[in-house]
Request: fold
Amino acid sequence: MASVLEDPCVERTFKGHKDAVTCVHFSPNTKQIASGSADKSLMIWNLSPKGRSLRFVNHQDVVTSVQFCPVGSLVATSSKDRMVRLWKPTMKGESTVFKAHTATVRSVAFSHDGQRLVTASDDKTLKVWSVGRRCFMYSLTQHTNWVRCARFSHDGRLIVSCGDDGTVRLWDTYSKNCINCFSDYCGSATFVDFNSRGTCIASSGADSTLKIWDIRTNKLIQHYQVHSAGINSFSFHPSDNYMISGSSDGTIKILDLLEGRPIYTLHGHKAAVLTVSFSGAGDHFASGGVDSKVILWKTNFDTKSYREVLQQHSRRSTPIPSPHLTDIHPRAPYPHLAQPPDIQVSPAVADTQTPDPHVTEIRDSGQDNIPCPDPSSSGPQHHSPVHASDAPSHHPATLTDDDDSTEEDTTEEESSSEEVEVQTRAAYKGGRQKPQEDVTRRDTRVDRESTRGEDKARKDTHVDKEVHRQKHREGKTRRDTQVSREGSRRKRREDEPRKQHPDGHQATQPPLNSILEHIVQQLDVLTQTISLLEDRLTMTEDKLQECLPLAQQTQGAGSSKTDKPP
Reply:
């Protein structure tokens, strides 16, 4: 029975993400862990007990992949927002943006010298970028469905990729050709990677299988089906003797590659495990899952030599020798014998060291460098600043003048109507105060009063018309004044750019960045066109090779008929 010190155990649990943790990776010095999440953030966790953790929140969608640069201090992330970002993990939060693909970017990985970057996307392509120059280099386009993962070999000579077309492809970075294709998967191939020696590649699938291939013989040397659901991620131990895998069944499996069997099953997460990764020294590994937690594990099982482990765990040994990854395995499949069940490890304490670390949220306030634009997007739009003279043609002063004139006109109209009404009442009262001597005088006076009333009504109507005409003339005068003011303001706005530019013309030439982005976009289109032409030429050559034997047979039959005597 194994001692407690030999079994893997939980060292720390990090809680800070608000959604599923999709990817984790150790820094080269093993002092930090980077994690990406469906909450659109990148977290840099400091492994020291009192260290400060940083959250970067510039992505607009789920962060799908993260990796530290092996050389330097950069961190690369990919996202469903079609962007790839190169971060400097400091308080400034500076990042460089690659508008890399036309669809979700599933994977990002550095070469081991830190000079190149490979990305894989749902647009069915892989793209290689120069890290130092921050520019696009070339595309690899033979996958027929979404590309899930891509990784460099240790010497940078090869790239391995896998995707939803069920294939694992091996690419030569010099010739940029696919030199081998493994197509044993019935469904999607989810993850792929090289071992540290570069002699083997491993791939996992949604069908819960994990396969290891020897690329020197192009043969499948090990095949595992130890999970009950799809495998989302795996990681080689630096010694190449062990491998960890995370699955949607909520468990982590530790595989002994020398024996060819699982030796531990870890139950640290409460839901699907989406990502696992060994540290550079192999003494720790990290995992993340749908439960939004990042768990740091102590390896322990690699502290003793393999022979000592076999002596203490005799039930794990096999009666016949198993192949080592550095050996060329024979062509016949290896007869793996039935093995006893692996050891189940369930952590009793999630975190025994420190409480949740203090998290500082950082947003990138600077301008992003965009080396390669998205071919489907239009050029950048340049917006000039809005000055006070460029405001719309509705001026507050003009509106105030119009309001004042309206109020004055209304007051004049009310006062004139009151004066007419007062005069009419006064005339009527004056007519009533005179004594009535007799009926005849009264009738005559009534007739005169009625005549005066008619004359007064005519005068009132004339006064109203004059008032209306006066208002019309005043309104016309104000409108003319407003038009003249608008003309003078418009003329001043037109003269201001001419003062800034002595030649009297606006500078309309596009900036150099727009021209360079357009050139890069055209080069990308040419690259894709050349790839299509190469594919068509290959198809034509294949058809010609099929037709040549038929033509030769037909020619031979015709010559034999000609040689016969009459």
